[in-house]
Amino acid sequence: MRLLRSTVARAALLGVSFAMIMPLPVAPLVHPAAARSAPDSFADLAAKLLPAVVNVSSTQTVTAKNGGPGGPGAGPEIPMFPPGSPFEQFFKDFLNRNKQGQGGPDSQARPERRAQSLGSGFIIDASGLVVTNNHVIEGADEVSVTLQDNTTLKADIVGRDESGDIALLKVKSDKPLPTVDFGDSSQSRVGDWVLAIGNPFGLGGTVTAGIVSARGRDIHQGQYDDFIQTDAAINRGNSGGPLFNMDGQVIGINTAIFSPSGGSIGIGFSIPSNMAKNIVAQLKEYGHPRRGWLGVKIQQVTPDIAESLGLKDASGAMVAGITDGGPADKAKIRAGDIILKFDGQDVKEMHNLPRIVADAAVGKEVPVVLWRDGKEVTLDTTLAERPADAQLAAVDSGARPDVTQPTDIAGVGLKVAPLSQDLKDKFQLSADQKGVVITDVAPNSAAAERGLKPGDVIMEVQQNEVGAPADIQKQIDAARKADRKNVLMLIQREGGVQYVPLSLSKSSGKDKQPG
């Protein structure tokens, strides 16, 4: 199955076949004794809400160049037919006529064409502020909004949030426009009735009903994923439209569907209003989102990592790196710390942290509860505004000593050596790389099971920096003495830095040591 943004594709809508619209079988409703009965009708609520829901149309100029066969802007290739086939000649004649109509077969430039995208939106201010999805208007040369009475107004883009897929538009009208209000999405429960109103397939104002199917969905579209899932029918063109509760409040912005065909199968996703209204307020004031930023790289806390650090539960977000000069760096947060609470909110899993930090106000001082050295530590940090991703600095590395012969690390299946210029050249490591490099890994060993390989650099063991094989062995021996089942290593490899828990309970006798 595919996850699709629900905007109508940039193509002429006249090509949509209405033969695709098929009646669906109706199943009887089951009403548990404790459940509230379904509304007799949604008509009164729909009539009240429809005027504030709009169609959003964006157009984009696309210029293609004839780059030759297979090149940019190349025309369609002739299907494979036997040489001399009448079909082969038919397609050649057709394509040649097409090229001549665009300036001849040798013409390098093709005419400009206008690509159109249709979506939905809703008015939140009588002066003409309209909320929609960013992907509805992304790359547009012109944006227009069509009201329920078919009045079309030119729209200006106030601000866009690419990460959160939200855009704010402004239209000018000679009369106050009907509006809807954001509600509290945190109060919506699984099973609550909802209405989705939008512009599916460019048909105009369309109302569908369903329930909240799930909350807190991560559909891997971005680091701020926290979608409401609904079975109210959402199709292409519904993007940017509102999801209403039974009080007529917007609790979500319909954004994506999960579908094998591009049509609704009852799995739609909406951005929660509590996330959206903060971003909309920032777009209105600043023209861009201003998310809180901590300046850390994080990874999931696994049961093995938790055990190696004496943490009872595998919860929180482990700090794998610190951005120099960022808020975390200034607050003395360190790599290897596990963030358990941020601004009074529990960090149950790694992916919770970016959303919690992003929602916090820029410049706000917040308490951060960490797990460090076997106990909880609380530090205060002042959040900065999140810079562009391209500006986020990588974690720097320092330098370390010169060469000795590789050394066996007893019981884990590793051979390691201090860094030398020869080893840096061999494994293509940076000149200022620090740590101890792995030179060999025994098959079937604890190290092999964790995916360690020659060229990986061990920077820390049990959150202590290492610069020689003896440092590693000392930390492993101490962990065994403390009856730890795992030892935690900070590994530098091509993909960046990562904490890896290495089992000490798996025996790797001399017969399994690298040779």
Walkthrough of the structure:
By secondary structure, this protein is α+β, with helices and mostly antiparallel strands. The chain has 10 helices and 28 strands. The strands form 5 sheets. Strands 22, 23, 24, 25, 26, 27 and 28 form a 7-stranded antiparallel sheet that branches. Strands 8-9-10-13-12-11 form a 6-stranded antiparallel beta barrel. The protein is elongated, with a radius of gyration of 29 Å. The C terminus is likely disordered.
General shape? elongated
Mean pLDDT, all residues:
79
- Our measurement of the CA-to-CA distance between the termini, rounded to an integer number of angstroms, reads 47 Å
Low-confidence stretches: 9-33, 65-88, 389-404, 507-515
Radius of gyration: 29 Å
**How many strands appear in the DSSP assignment?**
28
**Sheet with the most strands, sense and barrel status:** 7 strands, antiparallel
Strand residues, percent: 25-35%
